[in-house]
C-alpha cells in the first residue's frame, strides 16, 4: 500500500510485470538487490561467479563472516529474501560468458542491470543487450565517484561507443630490471621476485639485470657479458633459474640478499653506459646495512622501515614463506595476495631495499600496499547512492519513459551549482561505433608478415575486441576461413602468419561471434612497423587509419598492418593499473580497471574527465525525478 502511494499505480503495474536480470553481486550489487526487493521488484535473476572474501565484509552488507568462501549470488539471494520473502529470486553461481546465457536468455528480461567490476564482462553484456534489444543500465564507482548510464539500442550511446582509455600503465622490462627511477618500479620488481621465488615462474618477470637493454650500445655491456660468459663457462656450470638457485641454497636469506642486492648490482654497474647520465646504484651487504638495528621490528603499516628493518623483515618473510611453500607439496606454489601479511611484508621490504639502492624515496607499508594491490578505496555509501540511482532510472524505463532517463554522475565534492549528483542528457549512438552502428567496422594496423592467426584470435579479437568465440573468413568472395570457433578445425594454422593466407593491405575480414550475436568487419591496414613495441593498433573509425604510401606499396600481396599490442600481453612490458583519480567538480565518467584475479573493490573503475554535457531542463535538474 505504501509503495503504491509513493510510486503510483503505473509504476506498480510495471513492477508486477517486469523481469530483471542483475549481473554482479559485489559492492554495488548488494545495495542494488536490497533496493530492488524493497522497491517492489518481485522477479529477479542474479548472476555472479565470485565467492565471498573476508575483505568484502566491511561494505557488502548482505554477507557475514559465516558466508566466507560461499557463492556471492546464492548468499545475496538468501539475505535479500529476508527483506521481502515474497520476491522470486533466482541465483546463478556462474560466468556471464557461459553459453547458457545466450541471446534467448537475455530476451527473457525486461531490463538488465549491470553491477560489474571489469571491462570484458561489461562489453559482453552491452553486446548481448544490443542483440536482444533490451534496455541496459550500466554503473560503476571509484572511491567517492560514481556513475549510472542507461543504454538503449538506437537511442543512446552503447557502452563501447566512447573509447575507453587504458586503465594500465606500462613500463619497459629494462626499466624495471636495470634503471628504476620511481617507487612503483621497485614494487613491480618486488612482486616479480615473489613469483620467481615462491609463485608461478614467468620468463617475462625475470628480476636479473637485462643485458638486452636498448640503451646499451654494441659494447656498452661487454664487460658484464664477458664476465657472465666466463662465470658460466667455468666447470661447465649451467645458469639456473632464480627458483632453482634459491632451492639449492635452502632459501638462505643472507645468500639471496647478497645475490640480489650486492652481486647483481655490481653486475649492473659494469654496464657503464647506463650510468653516464644517472645516479649509479649502491651495493648493499647483508652484514653492513644503514639504519637502526632493532630488536623489535616496527609492524605499523604507516611506518617507513629503515634499510636494516627491511632486511630483518626480509629474513623473517623468507623463513615464513619457505614454510608456506613447503606446505603446498612438491608441485605447489604461492599466489601473491595483498591480504597475506607474509607476502605483503616481503614485497614491502624488498621494494624499499631496492629503492634505497637506486636513491628512490622509501615508502610505508600502506603506500606500497596501495601500489602493489592497485587499491582505490571502496566506499559503501558511494555504492549505496549509485544503487539508488540505478533503481530510479530503471523505474523510468519500465513505464516507457526512456527519453526521460539521465546519465547520473556522483562527484567527490559539490560542483559550481552545489550538486553532488549531476544528471546529464543521454548522448545518441556514435555513428561509427564498431559495436552498435548499423554496419560495425574497424581497422587494424599491423604487419601481416609478422602477425600470426593466434595473435589475431587471442590478442586482437578476444583480447582487444572482447569477442568470445570468433569465426573469421576473408571477405574475398571465396569464403576462405581463417579462424573457426569449432574445436580442432583451424588450430593447426595458428602459428602461420596472416600473409600466408594472402591477408595484406585493404584485406577485409568478416568476424562473427555467434555467442554474442555480433558481426564485425575488420579492415587490415599494412604498416611495416608501428611506433613503440606494439604488434597491432585497432582504430574504430576507418577514416582515421591510413598506411604510408611507401609502406603499402612495399608490401607483397598487399601485406599490411602493425599494431599496438595490449599491454598485459606485451613481452617487453610490465603492467600495473593506474591508480590516479581525477578530482573535479564537473560531471565525471567512470571507466574500468583491467581485471585482476582478486579486486580490492569489486566496482572500482578509475575516472577520467568527461566532456561536460548540459543537462536538459537547465536549472530544473536539481533532483532526479522518477517520472
From TrEMBL:
It comes from the Eukaryota. Residues 547-572, 585-627 are annotated as: Disordered. Zn(2+) binds at residues 158, 161, 433, 436. Residues 336-369 form the Ubiquitin-activating enzyme SCCH domain. InterPro entries: ThiF/MoeB/HesA, ThiF_NAD_FAD-bd, UAE_UbL_dom, Ub-E1_IAD_1, Ub_act_enz_dom_a_sf, Uba2, UBA_E1_SCCH, Ubiquitin-activating_enz. Residues 5-411 form the THIF-type NAD/FAD binding fold domain. Residues 553-565 have a biased composition (Polar residues). GO terms for biological process: protein sumoylation. GO terms for cellular component: cytoplasm; SUMO activating enzyme complex. Gene3D superfamilies: Ubiquitin activating enzymes (Uba3). Chain: B, domain 2, Ubiquitin-activating enzyme E1, inactive adenylation domain, subdomain 1, Ubiquitin-like 2 activating enzyme e1b. Chain: B, domain 3. Heterodimer. Belongs to the ubiquitin-activating E1 family. This is SUMO-activating enzyme subunit. It comes from Elysia crispata (lettuce slug).
